[in-house]
Amino acid sequence: MKTKMENLEQVSSNKIFGGQQRVYSHESSELKCKMNFSLYLPPQAEGGDVKLPVIYYLSGLTCTEQNFITKSGFQRYAAEHGIIVIGPDTSPRGVKIDGDDESWDFGVSAGFYLDAAKEPWSKNYRMGSYLNTELYDLILKAFSNVVDPDRIGIMGHSMGGHGALVSTLRNPGQYKSVSAFAPICNPTACPWGVKAFNGYLGEDKAKWVEWDATELVKKYEGPPLTLLIDQGAADKFYIEKQLLPENLVEACRSVGVPVILNLREGYDHSYYYISSFIGEHFDFHAKILKA
Ligand SMILES: N[C@@H](CCC(=O)N[C@@H](CSC=O)C(=O)NCC(=O)O)C(=O)O
């Protein structure tokens, strides 16, 4: 299938479950660097005469666009439901900033899907605007023959789960369905979040709450939404209180936002866990996006 944008380069394409798993690259104006993203076209996209729902999948710390497409097995379910799936990268790439590769939970591969406010990060680390405006608009334009702009959902894992929740709550109506695997639910109250927010946003905690799902849900006034949260009970990051799903559930209940928390006995934080339940998440999104 041809796209309508010259700023897009196809990096790879592999047939899987009757559809095409592709990777594209493009020059990002928000991030000021070249970025990859993955795109799965289910078999129903062939011919380009029907508009299909879309799900964005946001990966976690240390990931690129590759982890989800090679490890989760999502393509079987996307093909069954006829859903296009987009997977952005997790941070700007090829931009050298002092300290950007010193730790695995900050800098490269750890963009936290927010717009940094503090120098030197604020010039490039604008993953919030990149995801929710630049890439979102690019997909609508480049794949306008197959993408249904009114049926777009989002999901993610860990840092990407935080990104999915925050993107939905900050942009009411843009994503019609949302789910997350082991999300960082309350970053202002966990070590990963405190480190990232201090680094990217600075010391002003008023800025922090604007990127924290547990805080944002308390003020949510958009269209009705049900949050699906999945959590492995044996996940070391859950046990170490990096994820704090109970805080999000409590905040949702305090304001009457429906939330489902599935605690999965014995499962950890890995893609073994994600691949075990990815089908259930596709069922959840399909029910909303195809209603
Ligand atoms: N290096 C870390 C472990 C890193 C890790 O578990 N990353 C997760 C996301 S964690 C939250 O955002 C991940 O998805 N990894 C990629 C994969 O393919 O599994 C450590 O030392 O513990």
Please characterize this protein's 3D structure:
It is globular and about 50 Å long. It contains ten helices and nine strands. It has helices at 66-71, 75-81, 127-142, 159-170, 191-201, 205-208, 213-216, 236-239, 245-255, 271-289, and strands at 8-16, 19-28, 33-41, 52-58, 84-88, 147-157, 177-181, 227-232, 259-264. α2 (75-81) runs parallel beside α10 (271-289). α4 links the parallel β6 (147-157) and β7. By secondary structure, it is of the alpha/beta class. The structure holds ligand LAXINWYW. The ligand N[C@@H](CCC(=O)N[C@@H](CSC=O)C(=O)NCC(=O)O)C(=O)O is lined by residues 60-63, 67, 71, 104, 157-159, 269-271. The ligand N[C@@H](CCC(=O)N[C@@H](CSC=O)C(=O)NCC(=O)O)C(=O)O binds at residues 60-63, 67, 71, 104, 157-159, 269-271.
Largest sheet data: 9 strands, mixed
Helix content: 25-40%
What are the segments in which pLDDT stays under 50 over at least 5 consecutive residues? none
Small molecules held by this entry: the ligand N[C@@H](CCC(=O)N[C@@H](CSC=O)C(=O)NCC(=O)O)C(=O)O
Rg from Cα: 18 Å
**What is the strand tally?**
9
Average residue pLDDT = 97
Number of helices: 10
Reading side by side through the largest sheet, how are the strands ordered?
Answer: 1-2-3-5-4-6-7-8-9
SSE layout:
Layout: E1 8-16, E2 19-28, E3 33-41, E4 52-58, H1 66-71, H2 75-81, E5 84-88, H3 127-142, E6 147-157, H4 159-170, E7 177-181, H5 191-201, H6 205-208, H7 213-216, E8 227-232, H8 236-239, H9 245-255, E9 259-264, H10 271-289
Parallel strand pairs: 4-5, 4-6, 6-7, 7-8, 8-9
Antiparallel strand pairs: 1-2, 2-3, 3-5
Helix pairs in contact: 2-10
Bound molecules: the ligand N[C@@H](CCC(=O)N[C@@H](CSC=O)C(=O)NCC(=O)O)C(=O)O.
Ligand LAXINWYW is lined by residues 60-63, 67, 71, 104, 157-159, 269-271.
